[in-house]
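Two proteins follow. First one:
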Amino acid sequence: MQLRKYGFHGLSYASIVTSLAKHLNKKEEEINIVVAHLGSGASSCCIKNGKSIDTSKPSRLVYTFSSPELRPRHGSHPARGFAWWHSIRNNRSDYNFPRDQRPSGGRRGGRYERDQGRAGPEQVSDSLSQASSQWLILRQSGLQALAGTTNFGTILSRLDASTCSKEEHDRASLAYAVYLDRLLAFVSQYLFKLLSTMPLEKIDGIVFSGGIGEKGVELRRDVLNKFKWIGAEVDDEANGKNKGEVREITKRESKLKGWVVETDEEKQCAELARRQLDF
């Protein structure tokens, strides 16, 4: 059985591979990295020999079967993937859940009752309709629900308790801790997916991109410091700079490299069009 997994941010990852290969004077087929594309929407990708082999934010799973009856009818929704990895979405829930789990026995006294033999809650209040619950999951979750803001810069600033109220500080601290935990969950597993097939010396490093990835000095430092035990050494001066299309943020002697690569999805899209149209 063959399995193909389509994911988001493909143009970004392709742009990063091209830029890093050029910077390292290597062929794109020789690039082995773990990328964290962090913005309003975010995902991580494991890239081996210049090609994606896994992604945290799938858009659809496609099974290759000879019989159409065996093919899945539904793919994954954009809300699936990282926990709290979208500024407004809860990325651990399927937005169809309220509809799929709604009992079919009818409504009595303002509450749904369990149909015979059906899984689901004994009573579900009708105060939260399907449309409302979808709006809640897709628009009022994520960082917005945890911190009360979608601005990651604001969240970082509120980690300093002297700059905001106690409630704002507590909510920002929780949001940052959850964000970091989910980021590490994917980055670490992808790093070890590469390490299981090649020595550390062949891995080009961990790459940060997107608005948060390119500007999040504290976040990059906290992630890389978790990999000190395999030789990652952050260069605080280099990490503090916010200029340069491709810049290394670890020390020269660091065994695991850290990079910031400014992604250019528009340029990548134009390049694909140029190749397709042959001009």
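Second one, unrelated to the first:
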Amino acid sequence: MKRFIYLNVFIVSLLLLVSVKVSAYDFEVAGICYDVVSWDDMTCEVTFPISFIYTGNIDIPDKVVYNEREFSVVRIGNDAFHRAEVESVSMGNSITVIEKTAFKNCEQLKEVIMGGSVETIGDYAFSNCRQLKELVISNSVISIGRSCFEEAGLEKVVLGKSLENIYSWAFGYNLNLVTIYSLNPQPPRISDDTFHNVVYLNATLYVPQGSVDAYKNADYWKNFKIREIDATGIDNVQTSENVTEVARYAIDGKHLSSPQKGLNIVVMSDGSKRKVMVK
């Protein structure tokens, strides 16, 4: 009798597990899974797939249409790309939040083109993305969470002009990080362990014109070697209202050090993207 009861419990548990997995996401469009966030606002978020893993180059659109209903894509959900085999990600400008652990342990991720409306990047969102050498944080971003880019392999990062808070260990153990641009004239709030001591010792921090003293007097920022941004160089980040180019990529997501014949994707200092045909 007990064996029969145990068997029934096992079968019911298995059916519940299957039921949960089948309903793990709400709908799928063009190989990307989504959950509805709000029916009133017709919004959705990118979520984790159950029967496959995301691979290659991912282009997250501003809007998706499913069964004649149009949704705006406003978030990348928790664990959405956790351990995915993606190499590059391009985000639409409707996304406002990248949730915690969204891209954690994406060991093949090399390029992230962030949308111009992202305001919050959650804890551990890009931790252990060890091939992510360069990154532009959109000018819309206000907050970077704890351990967000810990052990991400970064060598160069551009911090947008709206950034206010960078939490503990956000850039921990990026020991090869040697170039940092901070576009906010007012130093964002950081802690002593936001960056590793090796980065404080070896990196050069570039700040807007007229802001050097503010950073030299700010807690922990003052640990860096600080330089004023040269607003005349075409390859430098500029702080005027006119947006400028800060990174360039080939159509396959490969970083370009200079314009290359064919279609180029140009990332601007406000986080927007432009497609440019080079002849």
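SUMMARY FIELD: Helices lie at 2-22, 197-202, 212-216. The chain has a mean pLDDT of 86.
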